[in-house]
Amino acid sequence: MRHPRLVLAIFILSGAAGLMYEVVWSRQLVLVFGNTTQAVSTILTGFFGGMAVGSFLGGRLADRVRSPLRLYGIIEVVLVVVVLLTPVTFRLLHELYRGIYPAIEGQPIVLALLRFALAILALAPATVLMGATLPALTRQLSRDKHLSAAFGRLYAANTLGAIFGTLAAGLVLIELAGLTGTLVIAAACSAVAGAVALVLSRGPGAVDPLPTVARAQEALATAVASSRRPTLALVLAFVSGLTSLGYQVLWTRLLSSGTGNSTYVFTLILAMFLIGITIGALIFNANRRRIRQPVALIAMAQALVAAIAFVGLVLVIGKPGPIDPGNAFESAQAILGPIILVVLPATIVMGFTFPAASTLLGDDPDRIAANAGRLLAANTAGSITATFAIPFFVIPAVGSPNAVALLALVNVATAIALVASRAGARSVSPNRRLATGLAAAVVAVAIVAGLARPGTIVDPSVARIHERKAQLFESQEDEIASVQAGATATQQLWVTGTAMTLLTVDAKLMPILPLVLRPESQSAATVAFGMGSAFRGALIAGMKTEGIELVPTVPKMFHWFYPDAGKFLADPNGEIIVTDGRNHIELTTETYDIIVTDPPPPIFSSGASVISSLEYYQAGHARLNPAGIMMQWVPYGATIDEFKAHVRTFKSVFPHVTMLFGPGGYGLYMMGSDQPMAFDEATTREVLGRPGILEDISSAYDSRATTIDQWVTKIDQLRWIDDAAVDRFTGSGPLITDDRPLPEYFLLRRVLNRDVPLAHPGLLLSLTRG
Predict the structure, then answer these.
(1) Confidence of residue 420 (pLDDT cuts 50, 70, 90)
(2) CATH architecture of 507-768
(3) What is the pTM of this model?
(4) What confidence tens digit (pLDDT) does each residue in 273-282 have?
(5) Which residue among 310, 424, 521, 710 is least crowded, i.e. fewest CB within 10 A of its CB?
């Protein structure tokens, strides 16, 4: 056909758009369904499921049309319309979910099914269309070439586009244009791809000729030659999808340990993963004609992936270097070495393996697109399986490091099964079968020995704690994170290798300061449980209290920090709710006198802005009783401009705001209400004199006050600004919204404005004096 390079170019554009869609939609739907593993898995299943259905149906359709290129162009143009409607669709689904949620909140199975149905409803129209694009273009490019040649070239082009989409969205577009703007830019890419395809489809050579006797004879011969191995190809595609996405999930979790979980760390890992896949696909394309024994080659590749994954786990990932989680850029640089040593070589082999499986399907010219669609659908089915099996079953059962070893065993078992199969016996020489089988067996023995020998496989989160010479009390891993309780100078909680909190007076005061301002308060919600200091403090103060925590294991560490934890867990006034805090505040029908939010540090961590955005504060405002107070903890670590955006966003919702410095020096308290707030000495003394409160807030290792007189003085010293002074401090400027998550996307701002200082008490006081 004419212009094959241009066809590949538009598919690169399509791949970039597809990845940007995935990034934006995943984030937007997390805001609807919550950030729990169940919700995220449901979203990914909806995305991959639609792609699989689209691949299968698109393949069957593309084999029946005269111009697959025209079909592709039409698909892209229709996709643009569907994509531009998704913001409206998602808002309608959000309202529907909000309306149904209270009735089924206590029925997790029904809730999971509802999320699944709504995710499919939201994503299916677009993802089915997206899935149909690769089979259509495979049919177009393979009329004069083999299936494996066309499939491999398009697979490489699409993945190359995904790299561009990952870097563009993660590093530039979301920061500059927001989520909606990024979606529009991605839609423009799809529109260009579709328009170019439609123009090219009108030229000569773009329409299939009518079948000839020669083509019919070729089809018959090819079908006979290849009819014995299509099932094997589909099984290999499934295993490729299962292990590839499984490794991606696990490597992302392990490599991000201790980094502070910035968006840029995740962007770097995904980009390098895709770069490896692309290089592998390009290597396959360059060497396709030389492949004489594809079964043997795929078997060796499976064994090689297993070896790289296991050796990298033991020698590289399990021995992490020092990282400063408070510096997103240094964290990303620190994990670059492990990515290059482990992820890149393994993904190069993976990128070679999947298109190599297409050689087993043959080149029946009447089923080119259908075979490509089946192959992609099988691969996507493997990815869907990994999406559920890895976080829900494998990680909670054995932990992420051991899960990597188990995936490596899946690769080894695949290699051995291939050389032992009838297909292997027919197409692989005896010497090569023996060599490949022995190599796979050696890798398998090494992995089993490593699993059996304690200390061989180490969780990097635990390794980091040992590096700090800290005492480790307990370590557990659930479907969301690896969690450790231990002690340095005082007790400390780590989540995914990053210090979340310690027994500081700052946390103990979180429910007490709002209570001093509203001494009649009877109910409270604490979002982000942490060590349980705020939850416990609110119960000590006599309030009916909900402790809301995303990570299931975190509340299980409560007893390590407070010996009396059992008493508070059994308190009928207290309830621990394991769910997404943002989602709960939005959807619950409960109302509160006080809402305390303690976002996970560092301030730029991925996902943290969902509980520091305009929409979150609006949801909190709606859940407050009259004159209620929302208390938001703002940790240090933001630039002064970003800090002002935090305060400005909060003040845009609450007409009355008062701010105090944390006595421990870790951040500030930001309290907002519909009604005026003022500290009164008599009320302060009365509240602190209630049973247990003074003893609790004075017991922290960094508490500098122990009597009511000292605390009255200390609270007065901590006061910073309120109401009109807050407006003068913040001035005009951008707000933090769900669409513009400013705290998480800051690369260009900080690179272009390197002289902007980080907020700290001295600077803040100097800016508000007089």
Answers:
(1) confident
(2) 3-Layer(aba) Sandwich (3.40)
(3) 0.92
(4) 999 999 999 9
(5) 710
